[in-house]
Design goal:
alpha+beta, Naphthalene 1,2-dioxygenase Alpha Subunit, Chain A, domain 1, Rieske Iron-sulfur Protein, 2 domains, seven-stranded antiparallel beta sheet, five-stranded antiparallel beta sheet, 9 helices, 28% strand, globular, binds FE2/S2 (inorganic) cluster, binds fe (ii) ion
């Protein structure tokens, strides 16, 4: 974040807090419940996500040459490696012989991947290194029989993968700018200190919704973070398909006693970035939380939460981060339990629409954006089907 934006956001946050005012949208929004429950809509959303670069890990989870992790990303098995040259790459975790899962461990470090079925072996850059008893495969071309590569970007210490290989190959400029903001806020030279993952019985959008408004803080989080924030104050801005939310903390009035040159946004607010399509970065004073969403089914979502802290730390810090991570999990669980209850409530038919109030403007706009993405994808699908020149995607190593 550049200095001018940082100071302006703090001025705006201070103004709202002093006035006891709330940011208000121009109008309420009626959000159809069917957007959460229609299986055709859900499958189209999955196709949209599968054509996007998704946040899948923090760089420190693949720390050194030979490190790897495996993930399910929008239902596809993916292997992410750091090659011997230090570059992070992603591949479909599918053997080119007869399709077995090449790497079955969740994480580790190795020089090569040996398929557990017949031992075809791949290097960390995905290329095929050896075929057992190669005389049985005289036609195999080692130049093209490597693991299928996927678009993969490492930026601001976040690893992004497009699990279908189709659609987005690079991060859009707006997201690159957001990642530069994160770096400007000092979210670098960091490691994942603790992480947790769990499947919740709620549509993925119910989980996303909870991160786009602060109207619920004083109520749903009354036993956790509520005292840390003034009631229902936030400043939100769409940056491309991403949303930046600045949440002033109760310490905000201290700014009045300090010259603007001393103002630091991380000391007086939490800055939350909803990163399209599947991640949230919650920047706090000395660390950040990275939460990633993976839809498992229309009514089930896997949520992974990582506490990301400065690389350099003392033993004392470690106890602090443990307690901090536990507190974050307690707070987020408050949201996800309600998400599960909303999911169960949707089946009753009590609501055909939800109401996004004037405090919840980002929710209406985010859902409108998703609706446009879904419509755009349906158009693309129709035009691809009707085009006589449409061809299957090809995969090759550069
Ligand atoms: S399926 Fe991998 S070696 Fe046969
Ligand atoms: Fe919440």
């Amino acid at each position: 974040m550049n200095r001018e934006t940082e100071v302006q956001l703090l001025r705006d946050a201070l103004g709202l807090t002093q006035a006891g005012a709330h940011s208000m949208a121009a109008s309420e929004v009626e959000q159809p419940v069917s957007d959460y429950t229609d299986p055709i809509r859900f499958n189209t959303e999955l196709e949209v996500m599968a054509r996007s670069l998704n946040v899948v890990a923090h760089a420190s989870q693949v720390p050194e040459p030979g490190s790897f992790i495996t993930r399910e990303i929008v239902g596809r098995p993916v292997l992410i490696t750091r090659g011997l040259d230090g570059t992070v790459r992603a591949f479909l975790n599918v053997c080119r012989h007869r399709g077995a899962r090449v790497e079955t461990r969740e994480s580790g470090r190795c020089r090569a991947f040996v398929c557990p079925y017949h031992a075809w072996t791949y290097r960390t850059d995905g290329t095929l290194a050896s075929v057992r008893q190669p005389e049985g495969f005289p036609s195999v071309d080692f130049g093209t029989a490597g693991l299928v590569p996927l678009p993969c970007v490492e930026s601001a210490e976040l690893i992004w993968v497009n699990p279908s290989g189709e659609g987005e190959q690079e991060l859009p400029t707006s997201t690159v700018a957001v990642l530069a903001e994160l770096e400007g806020l000092g979210c670098v030279n960091s490691i994942v200190q603790h992480s947790d993952s769990k499947v919740w019985r709620a549509n993925w959008k119910l989980i996303a919704d909870g991160g786009l408004e602060s109207y619920h803080f004083k109520i749903a989080h009354r036993r956790s973070i509520a005292p840390l924030f003034p009631d229902n104050v936030s400043i939100q801005e769409f940056l491309g398909r991403n949303v930046r939310t600045v949440l002033p903390t109760s310490t905000m009035p201290e700014l009045l006693n300090r010259p603007e040159s001393d103002w630091r946004i991380r000391d007086y607010t939490h800055v939350v970035y909803a990163l399209w399509p599947n991640a949230t970065v919650l920047v706090q004073e000395g660390h950040y939380t990275l939460a990633t969403i993976q839809p498992v089914a229309i009514d089930q979502t896997e949520i992974s939460v990582a506490t990301v802290v400065p690389r350099a730390q003392s033993e004392q810090d470690q106890a602090y981060w443990r307690a901090n991570h536990d507190f974050t999990m307690k707070t987020l669980d408050e949201d996800f339990v309600i998400g599960e209850q909303i999911q169960a409530g949707m089946a009753t038919g009590a609501n055909t629409t939800f109401r996004f109030g004037l405090f919840e403007g980002a929710l209406g706009r985010w859902h409108e954006m998703l609706r446009e993405e879904v419509a755009g994808h349906l158009d693309l699908r129709r035009s691809t089907r009707s085009s006589p020149t449409a061809t299957a995607p090809s995969h090759s190593f550069e």
